[in-house]
Amino acid sequence: MFSGGLDSSYLLARLSKMEFRKIIAVAVDLGEEDNQNLSMITDKLGVELKIIDAKVYFAKNSVIPAIQAQAIYLNMFPVSSSLSRPVIAKKSMQVAIDNDCDVLLHTANQSQNSLRRLNGSIQSLKFDGYYGSPYEYSAISRKEKAKFLEKFGFSFLTNRKLSGDENLWCREYESGELDNPESFCLNESLYKWSVKSKYNHKDRIKLTFKNGVPVAIDDKSTDIVKLIKLLNYRIGLSGVGRYAGLEHLPNQEKVLEIREMPAASILLNSFKHLEMAILTTPLIMEKSRMGQI
Question: Which helix (H) or strand (E) holds 9?
């Protein structure tokens, strides 16, 4: 499972030096806008690259249900990785099956909930092979990985101080400078969608829902993927959609994550207002209670 980031590039570089019969780097496209480095990395390592377009699948099967369920972690921030990891696992596993591969690897470790999300998804899909992360219990630092990758000319990866993840629903950062939640500083340049306009930006948006699904902006029908992308930038101009919160690990340790989710912010809030207008108070309270189970 290849994202083009520091961790997955490090694993791919290691694997490329081993005598495997076949190595396929699978990149599942869930709406990341900056993926031009994928082919450059795999070409240099002599590894086959398969990019799977799963944006529509992700939006329809993960994002829409999340809007309807008001999937907000402990009422703090909208979930993202919980939605994306099962899709990445499913699409990657299908590539492995189609190409007779008996090993499916990712790079998550014990300090990342992605480890359990990916492994759990693959297990539930009953993959008939080996799977997991070679670095589950590894303490290899990002600095060490970056130094190793310099040998391959991947200097653009060595400047990344944070672990990032992006899809059409969320841009997220963790690790590195965020390892200390009591004292961290986030560079403003990391934000892309929620950069507030330098002008006195005012906007009025009309959202149309049909059967619980957002279908139009300002009475103009559009598909769900385009709708989310448009809202990310349009809502983001007002500086809306930034979240900072702690996520819990199984051992009750906590990791700080920074998220940028303008479209999620407005869609979840709009849907909640519709619920308040339509549903009975007892039903709303019960739905809210069940949503946090």
Answer: helix 6-16
Handedness of CA 1, 167, 250, 244 (dihedral sign): positive
Distance between CA atoms of 272 and 78, rounded to whole angstroms? 13
CA angle 117, 240, 195 (to 5 degrees): 100
Residue 282 buriedness (CB in 10 A; 0-12 / 13-18 / 19+): exposed
CA distance 1 to 15: 13
pLDDT at 249: 83
Write down the residue that tokens 């101009």 correspond to. 237
Domains of the chain plus CATH, in order, are: 6-161 (3.40.50.620), 173-291 (3.90.1260.10)
The dihedrals phi and psi of 20, each to the nearest 5 degrees, come to -90, 145
Residue 259 forms beta bridges with which residues? 172, 243
Global confidence as pTM: 0.92
- Which pLDDT score is estimated for 247? 85
CB-CB contact of 219 with 208 (8 Å): yes
Phi, psi of 180 (to 5 degrees): -105, 100
pLDDT means per 10 residues, the chain with 293 residues, are 92 92 95 86 94 97 97 93 96 96 92 91 95 88 88 80 87 77 75 83 89 96 97 93 88 86 97 95 91 76
